[in-house]
């Protein structure tokens, strides 16, 4: 279940309570009159079956309370209540299949932010990938896969395409379009230094057969990207964050970027172009798989439908916090 907390202007509280009482997926409804200070108003709280959340949020949005008051939505770790059990049974669909769109939008909105931390993680990942290529170290390549933060904006782009949220799509594309070139340019500078020092050699890279898979594009490259993207999106919508680690170490995005830089520095252009192709294929495959998963959730297990975007006041949490 999810816990809803609403600060409601006093003149709208009665209508809000009637809306919540009318929904069978809502329970544990409480009202504290005049307790809110900023913004002023009443505090209304309730527990909501996850599969009923989209409709409840849509009804609250229709009242305009997100502009005159505010709301937060968070998970309930454990509920011991017959009333809660009845609310879950009365709500349409299955809780494990429900996509709470505002929750997903806020999470992906945060993960798609282009900031110093995002650039730092991606740069470190690209540097690790270049070292893995130079030392023929699959373990270092896996480390680069795990450190890379690129799945966040890719997932956000998938959500944006399904929701027709072009602002979020633009934000995600900018994050990817800026961060990868910056990270690769920094990696290029470091690679030039390492080549000059003799730490990276053409013979060493050509002989690094354990990491040849990075630049060798084949039909399974697309299959793996689609499977990983689908698993990643499922992990987001079901709050099973542990599955994301498997996603990170199965796609060849950051390693391909690092290999392309090293190969280009040494004049191995066929390997550089192959790595660039691998990078593009994985990026596209992950986004396509994310869109497919969300569309399938809408058409099968998830009884709810996307609602208009609320003002971003819902609390943001990482998967670990959920």
UniProtKB/TrEMBL annotation:
Q: Does the keyword Transmembrane helix apply?
A: yes
Assigned keywords, A-Z: Membrane, Transmembrane, Transmembrane helix
Asked if the keyword Zinc belongs to this entry, the reply reads no
- TM ranges are 114-135, 141-162, 174-197, 217-237, 244-267, 279-298
Pfam families of this UniProt entry? Answer: DUF389
Q: Which PANTHER family match?
A: AT15442P-RELATED
Q: What is this protein called?
A: DUF389 domain-containing protein
